[in-house]
Fold these 2 entries.
Entry 1:
Amino acid sequence: EVQLLESGGGLVQPGGSLRLSCAASGFPFSGFAMSWVRQAPGKGLEWVSSISGSSGSTYYADSVKGRFTISRDNSKNTLYLQMNGLRAEDTAVYYCAKDRDKQWRYLDYWGQGTLVTVSS
Amino acid sequence: DIQMTQSPSSVSASVGDTIAITCRASQGISSWLAWYQQKPGKAPKLLIYSASSLQSGVPSRFSGSGSGTDFTLTISSLQPEDFATYYCQQGNSFPLLTFGGGTKVEIK
């Protein structure tokens, strides 16, 4: 059974940093691209970032480019999102999600999410 | 960037009804479209991919159609567990995925 478990969310002041983790199990982790998607309170879904299985390729939404860094440790089956320079508009539930079929087009499994609140 | 527009933003329906939700892309995306269901406080769940392919384990009362710029999610014989918010997502400009604004299906 595929499981994704996020952690690391919390309250942080504007300009601060936070690192999210996503522990994966139940599938060959290194064989699949992974993504982060966020959802601001009461709002829709926003793609944030994706990384290839080998970490060779990374992609970011314009809204986070230069501030967030996605990475993974395949030996630990864990995905990360380092978030620096946090802003109030980064407040959201952050989900990690698995690529469905190695085409980067769809997300078939999602974690339960971790809440990041940016506020003074 | 490709923009995804869903309509309606909300719909009220009764158990047993059939409803349709539409999604329009700002440019052609072939059949690279997915539909997700999200219940309050829960993660999204993939229902349909490639516009009309049913994800494993999803009931057959869910169906998708369309190509190019116009797509439809149809839910036949609504069940109590189907009341949720539904999102479309384009996979054409991968990995830069974009989602529609969502359609909330409420009990009438």
Entry 2:
Amino acid sequence: NAGVTQTPKFRVLKTGQSMTLLCAQDMNHEYMYWYRQDPGMGLRLIHYSVGEGTTAKGEVPDGYNVSRLKKQNFLLGLESAAPSQTSVYFCASSRVGEQYFGPGTRLTVT
Amino acid sequence: GESVGLHLPTLSVQEGDNSIINCAYSNSASDYFIWYKQESGKGPQFIIDIRSNMDKRQGQRVTVLLNKTVKHLSLQIAATQPGDSAVYFCAEKEGSQGNLIFGKGTKLSVKP
């Protein structure tokens, strides 16, 4: 099992550009999550999904969109990147209980 | 809103000593708690969890204690090793449909 994988690992964007982060899990988990982590901060939930075809807003959803067209994939989109979105992004998946995290994507917006 | 916090942002211990990392939570309805370890440049890794119907749970070299009266959670690491150096996060959850709420983390440094 690869667990939770994320692509890309690193990305640099200019303000106003768009991009999509891909998360994939091979554990047949129903729940998937996108978090951001800023220096000295804990993880903050952006969006999550409780199953294929469903998405919901988390704590900090503004400026992001998500889609869960397939159970194993959860996409995070930035339509018009802003410097405030410079962060490390983590995807996670779970059944009920503990969440399994991917290795993260480091995004810099200049 | 409710939040999970930590008493100390950094903790430095000698190799071989025991470590205790503390966490305060404020949502009395939370019924599930997790400790995660995050090494530099990696994603958080599950260490141990505990449900609110328990007050202690032991794993390999780790023990989690839950005191619901004062809403306090602690992680004890026995015989701390250099490989234990990381940031440790506690997280809480309310109900089966609730999302995890993470604390800001405690950095553990192990001196050889």
